[in-house]
Design a protein that fits this description.
Layout (H helix, E strand, L loop, with lengths): L6 E7 L2 E8 L2 E6 L13 E3 L2 E3 L6 E3 L5 E3 L11 E6 L5 E4 L4
Length: 99
């Protein structure tokens, strides 16, 4: 939970890279892959719950992964999300569905 409000951190998991985002008082996790083209989301701009891809300008809601602004692109997949649980010691755990 050392991630400051309004920022994010990439973590490596057995399921690949994920990004933990600290926004609006909560933690959210998204797979590190843009829904438009498989590029990293590192460098994305966070405004509230809106997260703008640094490569294409597509904006997503980090709570749901849904596209909120397609920046003129079509057939954009939502981001893959995972639930976050913050333990008493501050460790953030991801509940990744590997199905």
């Amino acid at each position: 939970a050392d991630i400051p409000e309004g920022s994010y951190q990439i973590v490596e998991t057995p399921d690949g890279p994920w990004i933990i985002v600290h926004a609006e008082g909560g933690f959210h996790a998204v797979r590190d892959r843009c829904g438009h083209f498989p590029q990293t989301m590192m460098g994305a701009r966070l405004t509230g719950f809106r997260w703008r891809c640094p490569h294409h300008g597509v904006t997503y809601d980090i709570r749901t992964g849904e596209v909120v602004d397609d920046a003129g692109f079509v057939d954009i997949d939502p981001l893959t999300t995972a639930a976050c649980v913050v333990r008493d010691d501050g460790m953030v755990l991801l509940d990744i569905d590997t199905d």
